[in-house]
Structures are given as C-alpha cells and as structure tokens.
Please model this.
Amino acid sequence: MDSTQLATITDADVLRGIVLEQLAAIAEREQSIAHFTTEIARRDHTIAWKSAEIERLTAEIARLRRVQFAARSEKMDPDQRALFDETMAADLAAVETQLQALQAPDPTSPAATPAPASRPAPRRAPLPAELPRVETRHEPASCTCAQCGAALVAIGEHVSEKLDCKPLEFFVRRAVYPQYACRTCETVTAAPVAPAIIDRGIAAPGLLAQVAVSKYLDHLPLYRQEAIYARSGMTLGRTTLAEWIGAIGSRPAAAGRCAAA
Model:
C-alpha cells in the first residue's frame, strides 16, 4: 500500500489494523535476519575449524610420507619392514580418509561450493574369477510403478562386488567304517582304521596344520590362537594346543601328514 492510498483511509480501526500487520511483518523479518545471522556465524566457525583441521591433516600426511620414504633407506629386518609398512599404510589411509571427509561439501548447505577435483582413484585389479560368489539380490519393495501403478519391467542390473571372508569355521570330520559280515564264513570285513596322528586325540590333521602354521609361519603365539578360536565358538586351551605342537614335533611322520593336510 502506497502513501496515496494510505491518505484516503480515515477509519482509525483500519489504520490500526494496517499498523499491526506491518509491525508483525517487521518482527518476522527481524527474526529471519537473526536466524540467518546465527547460521552464518555457525558456518563461518565450521569453515574455520575445517580449514585448520585440513591444514593439520595435510601436514600429518606429509610427515608420514617423509617417515615412510626415509625408512626405506635404512637397513631393517624384512619382517620388521613389512610390519612398519603395514602400520604406515594404515595410518596414511586413516588420515587421508579424514581429509576427504572434511573436504566434501556440506549437503545441508544450499550454496555448497563444489569440492576440489580429487586425484583419480587408482585402478584396482578385478577380483579373482575362481573365487565363489555369494549373491544377494535387492529387489524393490514393490514391482509396480509408484506413480501410475503399472507393472515394472527389468531393464538391467547394477552389480557391485566386494571381497569378503568368513571367520575361522570349525567342523567335525566324522569317519565311518562300515562292517560287513559273511554268514557262511562267519567273518567280519571292514576297512582298516587310519592311524591317528595323536592317539585318542580330537584334532584332525587339518586343525593340527592350522595351529602349527599359525605358530611358526604367522608368528601367532598359542595364547592368541586360543582367543581367535574362542571367537569362533571353540574353546581350545593353550595347554592343549601346546601338547598338539609337541606331539607333532616329536613325530616327523605326523608332521608330514599335517603338511599334506
């Protein structure tokens, strides 16, 4: 309403109503301005914190890379170097992941600036074709169109493959020796029972091989193996594991059978 129209109004109640409407509009505008001011201050604080954190992580990545490349010139035991390289690679990956998360634009911001162009991801070798595939299909909740109700028609698939593994899995190897009798000769025939590596022991050659390889090749002490097997639901005390290792070591033939397993 302009000043000319306002001058033609002589009713006090109408003028009072117009004033109240304008006061309400001004109060609402001031409230919006205060909200935007608070939001701008919050985003400025977030941007300042992210900038400082990005600078810190960038410096940390540079430091880790200097340590990584400097260590390669030093003489070190191959096993120690492998452990050092694995730890350094894990630390670098963790810091780079945090840096990428900070550099990503804020999805809640209406005017989020585009993220800087990241370096191209390294091309990874395809997963081995001989590995078994466990397929899980994720079908839509409904096979009809949500807008018109028509039946949906399959036009393709998006397939994503990720490498996975199962925890150590125990099973019972059950050996059955059927016995057959000859009624005429009154004799019983059965296949000879294979000699056990450990007399009256419960461990099959495969389990004995697992314990021995984990101890001597993977450098896993028996107390750690005990914890690993417990997580898989099998309680095997370290004393029992030690007895198995001793029995294998004292019988070369048994060690050969474990290696064949």
